[in-house]
Design a protein that fits this description.
The protein has 192 residues and is an alpha+beta fold. The chain is built from three helices and ten strands.
Length: 192
């Protein structure tokens, strides 16, 4: 078993579409991190004036070279401002490659056409979009693994929604679609 710590990241809403995510606290256990998250969720303005958009708890290994910043973790959980768990990825991602086996149907939180918000931590912003495709289901991934030569291995980058930044009805050409779509980690897609 790899030694790790749990990092709580408080993501605050600065403006309608801007976020601040530099508040990070490290803990020895997930239980400690979740306890602090719940405490903060009950008094969100104790240290900062901005509203909370979400909480992210990542399990980060000790003694491993991490080259992808926030993407390098052993597991990750995302919580709504009230402290309720929105989603989780319980396998490694980033340069610590884990294997994506697909999602169960109840883990697909949105359906094609749903309006959503996307959290872009790199740009420190939130943008609106529409679901075009959902993450693959376990059955789909199992068939891929069984039938693919050479052997296929999906990872955290495959656990994503395809999001359009405009309704599909406004995508009249292939170029419109290509210019408006993004592959977004399932952990960064929120209810509108």
């Amino acid at each position: 078993m790899m030694n790790s710590y749990f990092e709580l990241n408080v993501v605050r809403l600065l403006e309608e579409d801007k976020v601040y995510n530099d508040e990070r606290i490290r803990f020895h256990s997930l239980v400690e991190a979740e306890h602090e998250m719940l405490r903060i969720s009950k008094s969100p303005f104790e240290f900062e004036q901005e509203a909370i958009f979400c909480f992210i708890i990542r399990e980060i290994p000790f003694g491993v070279m991490c080259v992808n910043g926030d993407d390098d973790c052993l597991s990750e959980r995302v919580y709504l401002p009230d402290g309720s768990k929105m989603d989780e990825r319980l396998f490694a991602s980033g340069s610590i490659v884990g294997i994506f086996y697909g999602r169960l149907e109840h883990q697909i939180r949105f359906k094609v056409g749903d309006p959503v918000k996307v959290l872009d931590l790199g740009q420190k912003r939130i943008w609106s979009g529409f679901v075009y495709a959902t993450p693959r289901l376990v059955d789909e991934v199992t068939k891929l693994y069984e039938n693919d030569l050479p052997p296929l291995r999906l990872d955290a980058s495959d656990d994503c929604y395809v999001i359009l930044d405009r309704p599909l009805s406004e995508c009249k050409t292939d170029d419109d679609y290509m210019d408006s779509h993004s592959h977004i980690s399932a952990l960064r897609v929120f209810p509108n």
